[in-house]
Amino acid sequence: MSGMSGLLLLGLWINLHTCRALPNQLPALSTAPPGQLSPTAPLLEADGCGPCEPDLCPETRGCRAGLVLDSCGCCKECGNLEGQTCDPGDRSVFYGLCGTGLRCQKDPRPAGGGGGEDEEEEEEEEEEVCVCEEQEALCGSDGVTYINMCQFREAAFSRPELKTRGRGPCKTVPIIKVPPHSQVNGTGSSLVFLCEVFAFPMALVEWRKEGRDVVLPGDDPHISVQSRGGPLKFELSSWLQIEGAGPEDSGTYRCIARNNVGSVSASAVLGVLGAEELSSYLANSVSEMKQLMDATDYDQDFY
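and the corresponding structure tokens:
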């Protein structure tokens, strides 16, 4: 037995000195739980991404906001456009990364009005979207004003010949984006005409009624005019309101917009009817609509 004990002690002594002499040959001890990767495993493998082989990356086309790295940090994919939801930071996780000249931040647009679903609204408010880093407007060689550089890049992607004419909007004759609409209503009602205008330099908007050589509201207490900037940059919205309208208010109203480049106008007709006239007008309108529906062949197969 003493001989056997001596052999065991000799073997332990040899193993101990071998390990001290060759420490790099010791097996790596994994602290990860069974079934999981070791903390020393490559990050790509931990995320389900294999070794990066650029030659195997899919071809990307039609990327209007340029190229960004995918979730594995290997291949290129289309960057997100302005206004699209994005992943903050420099790594694509779920929504993707913003394209050229864009940064991911909280949506700068105002949140919607209050409602019953407060939690959902809070989630929407916290959502981060791609916002253009250069917000200055610029004028394109096509004579179109682009609100920022990112919108210009998107347009130039499909039209390589498009160039920038200069910083700031293009000088242009006013453009009526939303003209006033004709309407018919009863005596005593409140009526509103709307006129939205885009122009640079900003336009001056005035209202006139045909047959009267006066800028409204004039001295008429039941007519008022209000204007404000918006809803978009370089736009102006103007309202003409008539309180307690009477038959004498019937006629053609004109919205006139002008700046130092030129002027433009749009008109709408107002009809103010008494109770019997309004009832007859509505009956005729319903009859005309019914005839139009009867003349339409809804049995036709459009598919």
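(Above: one complete record from the training split.) Helices lie at 2-21, 43-46, 118-126, 149-158, 275-295.
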